[in-house]
Request: fold
Amino acid sequence: MDDRDIDFEDKLWKAADKLRKKVEVHEYKYVVLGLVFLRYLSFAFEERRKVLEGEFSNPESEEYIAYED
Reply:
C-alpha cells in the first residue's frame, strides 16, 4: 500500500466515526445480536437455496424446470 491508500483509509475511518453515533457499552448487545441474527439468516437461506437448486435442476424431480437455450 502506498501513502495515498493509507491516507484514504484513514479519512474513510474518520468519516465513519463522525457518522456513527456513540454507543454505550450496554447497547452493544443490540448491535451484535442483530448481526448474529443476519448471519444466521444468511446461512439458513444459503442452505435452502442449495436444496431448491438441486430439486429444480434434477430431471427426476417433480419441481424440475428445463431451461431453454
Remarks:
- The mean pLDDT is 84.
- Residues 21-69 form one domain.
- The radius of gyration is 22 Å.
